[in-house]
Structures are given as structure tokens and as C-alpha cells.
Design a protein that fits this description.
- Helix content is 67%, strand content 3%.
- By secondary structure, the chain is mainly α.
- It has a three-stranded mixed β-sheet, covered by helices on one side.
- It is elongated, with a radius of gyration of 27 Å.
- The two termini are 50 Å apart.
């Protein structure tokens, strides 16, 4: 969004902006506690809190810094509102107005009041109002106001710049908010931005709104699939099931819809339902789908049938067709074989671990390393009994991961790793974390078993 913002404002000063992502507040920075960020325009520098629980690394930061650098200081209402010009503020304002949460606009003309008003309300109101001023009265007049206003004269400066009272401007603005329309593709763009920010609740809200606006059946199917996935990302597996069932009702001939439904049912602890759904999906195609086979293997493992699980996983890992999943089947098969007393099984487990590491090493060189790459790397290293490096990799995965499903899986493997090191109390702490999270029910079931009996391989 910064490039779009810079183009609108015709910014032309050279130089780069530095953005520091901080996992926790650092003492040398004077933080804006409202949003977990800080901008130092004199050094073209910004700081943002960035962790799996809070992400302040919004394009707003660089837009605010660029305004300070190109236009200088203005009251926070104008600066922050202008920095949020490209945000979804108008969409949010419709909801704020409907819920009667908006405060009188005139009250925000005081910088002190603006900074002490509920941050979300003040931020959305300023961004929406500035957007209204620019869209309805053009940018030149707003920039004239920006340069003339200060913390003591903002209200009279606005009234002078626009030739009317703040009360009349507020009425015009609220009418603008009420009548502004959003196209489904705009909502989709905002949803994609929210997902990049790991704001999954916002994504769900936007996708649901987008769905209500769609008329095309295929577009609706795509958005419903997104809604199911975003519920999965939040560890809300029952809600994911509801959306996925809607997909199956839309098109009962799509094997992948039933397969995904079965996977969500397993995560939610509906083990028998999940297996039945996956068996039904398996019967829908004359050619074996390796993803269906993998999920079926998982269902048998959950129900304690390791023999059938091994057979199905072996079918998947020996399938040389393009598009066959590589890492997950090997990781699961490796975990089944590692506790075996058979030396041949243990040797085969190490072989799968080496195969995983070979692929993962290439992946880490060719693309941005994702949390799941760290996770699978750590699991593979544990398959080779490299507990030290495995621990580092899995901890890195959990540090970066935002999805409870994978967080739970990571903590489960850290518990197993601690058990192998004979660190029983540490292992129990990790297993307890799996139970605290909205992790998959089968990961929680395994964690409960390992709480009472240590993992071994």
C-alpha cells in the first residue's frame, strides 16, 4: 500500500525507511502504547511490535513517516487520518455508526482528547473523515489545511478551510459513510491484506461480508472455502466444519470438499464422522487421491490401527506422481516407526528423516523460510536423534507460527523431545501447552496420554 500512497502524494524525496520488528517493547524506544508502534521521521525509522499474538507492522507506519518527512508535523487527527487514507476505515465506520459507538467529531479536534479516546474509534473516525475531505473536496484543499493547522487551532482551521461549521461537515461525512459502497473485489483485497497481517478475525468478518454481496455461484464457493480455512487458522474447527458442509451441499461431486470436511472433523474430535467422510471421498474417484489416502491413514492412526495406517502411508510415500504430498506422510510414518523395537523399522524412519531434510534444505535455500519449514525440519532432525538442532528448529517454528493447529503440533513434539532428554517435567509443561491451545483434538489426546507415560523411540 505504501507505493500506492506515495504515488497519490507524488512523493519524490530519495532514501529508504527502516522498519524494525520487535517481539517485545525495547526500552530505548518511546512507544505509542495505543498501537504498539513508534515513528521517528528524523531518522526515517519506524518500530513495530511483531509477534504471533500482536502484529503492528502495518503499512500505516511508513505512510505516517513519509507524511512527516514530506509535509512536516500536523495535529495527530490529521496525520494519523491521512496515514490511514487507504485503510478500510469507511467499512469499519459503517459498523461503528450502526452500533452508536462514534463520539462527537468536534471532541477529536483536541489532540489530548483524540489521544485519550478509545484508540480504535479515534483511529477509524480520523481516517474516514480525512478520506471524506480528500474525496469530496480534493487533496489540494486538505494539504492547505494540513500545513495551516496546529494542536491549538485545528477546529477553526478546518472550518476556515472548508467554509462551514464542523457540525455541518460531520453531517456531510456521516451521509458519505452511510452511502459509500464497496465492491466484492474491494472487500477481497482488504481481506487479503488482513490475512497478511495475521488478523484472522478481520478476515472472517470481511469474507462473510463479501459472500453476502456475491451473486456468482463459483465466486461464492471460493469465498466459503476461504471462510472454512480462516476458521481452521483460528483453531475453530467446528465452525470450519459448518462452512465445509455448506461447500459439500453446493457441490457434492467434488472429492476435495469431502476430504477437507473429513480432515476438519478429525481436528474437531469427531473421529468416526471424519473417517466415514474420508472413506466416502475415497470412493468418489477411480484413481487414488494421495491426499485422501494420507488423511485416511491419520484417521486409522487416531483410532489405534497402526497396521492400516502404515500400509496407507507407505502407498503415499511410494507414489511417484506429481503433486503427491512429500513431507507430511514421511513425518507421520517416521513417527509411527520410531518407537518400534524392530531395527529395520528404525532404519527406515531415519531414511524418511533424511529424505525430508534433503527436500527441506532445498526449500530453505530457494524461498522465504516459513514456520512449517522450521517445524518439519525439527521433526526430521528428531528422527535422526539430533535433539539439540531439532529443539532450535521447532522453537523457531512456534515463535513464528500463528495457527493453533501447528502451534499445538510444535509443542507436542517439543514434549516428546524433552522426554527423550529425560526432562520429564519440561515435557509435561509442553504437553500442557497443547491442552491450553485450541489444538487439534487428536494432538490433545496424544498429549494427555504422554502426560502420564513418557514418549520413547
Amino acid at each position: 500500500r505504501y507505493r500506492q500512497f506515495a504515488e497519490i502524494n507524488k512523493f519524490n524525496l530519495p532514501g529508504k525507511y527502516l522498519l524494525y520488528l520487535c517481539p517485545c517493547p525495547i526500552y530505548s524506544v518511546i512507544w505509542d502504547d495505543r498501537f504498539g508502534m513508534m515513528v521517528d521521521p528524523t531518522r526515517n525509522t519506524a518500530f513495530a511490535l511483531y509477534s504471533t499474538s500482536y502484529n503492528a507492522a502495518d503499512p500505516y507506519l511508513l505512510q505516517y513517516a513519509s507524511l512527516a518527512r514530506h509535509y512536516g508535523y500536523a495535529p495527530q487527527f490529521l496525520m494519523e487520518g491521512f496515514a490511514g487514507y487507504l485503510s478500510i476505515a469507511n467499512f469499519d465506520m459503517k459498523e461503528i455508526v450502526a452500533q452508536k459507538r462514534a463520539v462527537p467529531l468536534a471532541s477529536l479536534m483536541s489532540t489530548r482528547t483524540y489521544l485519550t479516546t478509545e484508540p480504535y474509534i479515534a483511529d477509524r473516525m480520523s481516517a474516514s473523515f480525512v478520506r471524506f475531505l480528500i474525496d469530496q473536496y480534493k487533496a489540494d484543499r486538505f494539504l492547505k489545511l494540513y500545513r495551516a493547522a496546529d494542536d491549538l487551532n485545528l477546529l477553526p482551521a478546518i472550518e476556515q478551510a472548508y467554509g462551514t461549521s464542523i457540525g455541518q461537515l460531520e453531517k456531510q461525512w456521516l451521509h458519505y459513510v452511510d452511502t459509500v459502497e464497496f465492491r466484492p473485489e474491494q472487500i477481497a483485497q482488504y481481506a487479503a491484506q488482513a490475512e497478511a497481517m495475521f488478523d484472522y478475525k478481520q478476515v472472517e468478518r470481511l469474507r462473510a461480508d463479501q459472500l453476502s454481496r456475491l451473486k456468482d455461484r463459483n465466486d461464492s464457493i471460493s469465498v466459503i472455502a476461504e471462510l472454512a480455512q480462516i476458521c481452521f487458522f483460528q483453531g475453530r474447527y467446528d465452525q470450519a466444519i459448518e462452512w465445509q458442509q455448506r461447500l459439500v451441499r453446493f457441490d457434492s461431486t467434488r472429492q476435495i470438499f469431502r476430504m477437507t470436511l473429513g480432515a476438519y472433523q478429525l481436528m474437531a474430535g469427531r473421529f468416526d464422522d471424519g473417517q466415514r467422510t474420508l472413506l466416502a471421498a475415497q470412493k468418489m474417484d477411480t484413481v487414488t487421491n494421495p491426499m485422501v489416502t494420507f488423511n485416511l491413514a491419520l484417521s486409522y492412526l487416531i483410532n489405534g490401527d497402526t497396521v492400516t495406517c502404515r500400509k496407507l502411508l507407505t502407498d503415499v510415500v511410494t507414489d511417484r506422481r506429481e503433486g503427491v504430498p512429500f513431507l507430511e506422510p514421511r513425518a507421520m510414518l517416521m513417527s509411527v516407526l520410531m518407537p518400534s523395537n524392530d531395527e529395520q523399522d528404525k532404519h527406515q524412519a531415519v531414511t524418511y528423516a533424511n529424505e525430508m531434510l534433503s527436500v527441506l534444505n532445498q526449500t530453505s535455500k530457494s524461498a522465504t523460510t516459513t514456520p512449517t519449514v522450521y517445524l518439519w525440519t525439527g521433526i526430521a532432525m528428531l528422527g535422526k536423534d539430533d535433539t539439540s538442532n531439532a529443539n532450535d528448529q521447532i522453537i523457531s517454528a512456534i515463535f513464528l507460527e500463528t495457527r493453533p493447529f501447528y502451534q499445538g503440533l510444535g509443542y507436542l513434539w517439543l514434549g516428546k523431545l524433552a522426554d527423550l532428554r529425560k526432562e520429564r517435567e519440561v515435557a509435561k509443561e509442553y504437553y500442557a501447552k497443547v491442552l491450553e491451545l485450541p489444538a487439534a483434538k487428536y494432538h490433545q489426546a496424544e498429549a494427555r496420554r504422554l502426560m502420564s507415560r513418557p514418549y520413547r523411540q
